Structures are given as structure tokens and as C-alpha cells.
Amino acid sequence: MEGTIPLLTPYKMGKFELSHRIVLAPLTRMRSYNFVAQPHAMLYYSQRATKGGFLIGETSGISDTAQGYPKTPGIWTKEQVEAWRPVVDAVHEKGGVFFCQLFHAGRVSNYGYQPNGQPPISCTDKMIRSEFQLYGDECSAPRRLLIEEIPKVINDYRIAAKNAIEAGFDGVEIHGANGYLIDQFMKDQVNDRIDEYGGSLENRCRFALEVVKAVAEEIGAEKVGIRLSPFADYNDSGDSNPESLGLYMSEALNKYGILYCHMIEPRMIMQFEREETENSLLPMRKAFGGTFIVAGGYGRDDGNEVISNGGADLVAFGRWFLANPDLPRRFELDAPLNKYDRSTFYTDDPVIGYTDYPFLESSSQ
Length: 365
Ligand SMILES: Cc1cc2nc3c(=O)[nH]c(=O)nc-3n(C[C@H](O)[C@H](O)[C@H](O)COP(=O)(O)O)c2cc1C
Hints:
Blueprint: E1 11-13, E2 16-18, E3 22-24, H1 40-48, E4 54-61, H2 78-93, E5 97-103, E6 121-122, E7 143-144, H3 150-166, E8 171-176, H4 181-186, H5 201-219, E9 224-228, H6 242-254, E10 260-264, H7 282-287, E11 291-295, H8 300-308, E12 314-317, H9 319-323, H10 327-333
Parallel strand pairs: 3-12, 4-5, 5-8, 6-7, 8-9, 9-10, 10-11, 11-12
Antiparallel strand pairs: 1-2
Bound molecules: flavin mononucleotide.
Flavin mononucleotide (FMN) is lined by residues 25-28, 58-59, 101, 175, 177-178, 227, 264, 295-298, 317-320, 345.
């Protein structure tokens, strides 16, 4: 092992024997026609799979009210589950570990994505201010969920998790970040409820923790992770005390014994720009008992550093992994990286900007 960089050291994540610590971050690619994963995703994910490597799939809608972007996959119908299966098999053939990210857009959606053109659902009826929207179509005014409707939404997460396991995924990551439904409940700048799901920190986190509990009971806590972004205000979802929120969640999650907590670095004040900040994830890393994954603006050097200084167990890479299918190999060799092309992040071509990023000459597909 002498001379091996920290990112390339093995790590045991629960029952999963990972051979390195370079994780594929969840990346929406908008190439799933009619909300169904497509065969071209087999090549895309298998290109990025390695023996003992950990991949988090693009975010996948949990129900017919969950979508907010075009051509994003779902995991709520039988057809969607069947479509994921060969994609998961392709990753497993390479020896990869593959989780499905479970998504509900909440108010980051519009009538066009909703059954019968209904308003999108959220914890609130306040509309997202469009200037704070990450990307996508214009959002519609949401409808505040009635308290008696909340168990049904939690149940949708449970069923979606069950579906993901049926499709062959090794586990699920609950998407609690980036201003979507779960984050909307957690953040005090969005959540204006006066019932037991709003107000105090404990109340605002209740929905997230009930989802965690339901999903963990359904598929086993050892197969469940969650992604959080307490410091980010993407999609108009800021909080007045992100540190307390992150810490409260890290501690509360311990009760459910889930596999991992995946947090976005506070320096990602803008989703795709690194900025200087005094804030740190260290208190949350220390408070959480399971595997801790960090993401946001990482490269080879600071990735190695955060592993060696104990700031994280694993590092998720988004844009670099998108553009470099053989990222672990390139990091191993300290080889140059392909640049990513933002203009094809979200286009629907099954090849261009998707599976045509070149490998190093010396590595095989
Ligand atoms: C094209 C693209 C799609 C993304 N889709 C998702 C997603 O589906 N779910 C999610 O949690 N984050 C998503 N993100 C955020 C990434 O997972 C990651 O946190 C972000 O890119 C910052 O990491 P990086 O600096 O390594 O790219 C996306 C980012 C990009 C660039």
C-alpha cells in the first residue's frame, strides 16, 4: 500500500468492501425519456464503475408528484423498475456498488409535471423565487400538504426504496439536499407551517426523519444513506442557522443506524463555484456515527487531504467524474483530466456529452 494516495485506499462501508474512496456523485443527466431509465445508461454507468467502487445514481422520482425536470427517471412504476434493472446489472458486472437516489421535487416543479395539472406539493404554499432556482422550467405556486396527507408521501418513499431494491440496487440515498421536498421542510426560510412539521428545529426535521425511519424499516438501515446540504440555499431554500440544522440532523440520524450521511460542503455557496468560508462540516462529521461522505468542488489534492485528515470517509465527485469515466485511474496516475462541457450536462443526446468522454489511452472500458 506504500505510495498509495488516500483516495485509493480501501474502506469498509457497512457490509460493502470498497476498494477506494472516490464516489460517483448523483448526477441528473436528463436522458431518461418518459421518466424511464434508458439502455444508454448501461454504458454510462458501467464506464464509471470499478470493482469495489461506489456509485450513486441520478436522482429518481418516488411518485407521480415527484418530478420537476424533463427526462429524469422515476422508480415508482413497474416499467421504471424493470428499466433500471439492466443498468444496475451493468454496474454489478464491473463489481461496483450502486445506490439509487430517491427524489421528490416538492415545489421545484410546475403544473405540467403534476397529475391532472395540479399544483406541486410542498410544506408551504409560498412560491420559489425564480431568481434562486437552480435550473429548469418556471415553477408553479405549490400547495401546502395537509398534515393528514404527509404519511402518504412518506409511504411513497418507502415503496420507492422497496422498488429500488427490487431493481437490484444495493441501497438508496434519500435526497434531502438542494432545496427539494425534504430540504423544503427542514429550512426555516421555506417552512412556514404551524403544525408539528414546522416551527422548531425538531419539528422541521420531523418529515426527513420519518422518511429515514420508514425507508430503513423497509429495506434495512444498512442500505440507507441520506444527502443533506444544510449550508446551501439552492432553489430558494436557506436556513438562518445551518450549523444547528446540520448538527441536529447528524445526531438524530444516529438513532436509526443508517449507513451513511452525505453532505455538501458549505463552500459551495453557489452550486458550481467554490468560495471561501469559515463554515465546516467537521462538527457534523464528528457527531454522525456512520460513514461520512463529503461533496462539492473536490479535486485530487483536497480529496486526498480530507481523507487523510479525517474530515470524511469518502469523497463524491460530480463534474470531474461526469467528464472522466476513469477518474479513479486518472487520480492513481495523477493523469490530466478531461474538461467537462456544461452545455451537454442536461441535453438528451444518448451519446454526446454522456458516454463519449474519452478514457486514458492505457485504460480499458
Ligand atoms: C449535471 C449535474 C447534475 C446533478 N444532479 C444531481 C442530482 O441528481 N442529485 C444531487 O443530489 N445532486 C446533483 N448534482 C450535484 C452534484 O452531485 C454535486 O454535489 C455538485 O456537482 C458539486 O460537486 P462537484 O464539484 O464534484 O461537481 C448535480 C450536478 C451536476 C453538475
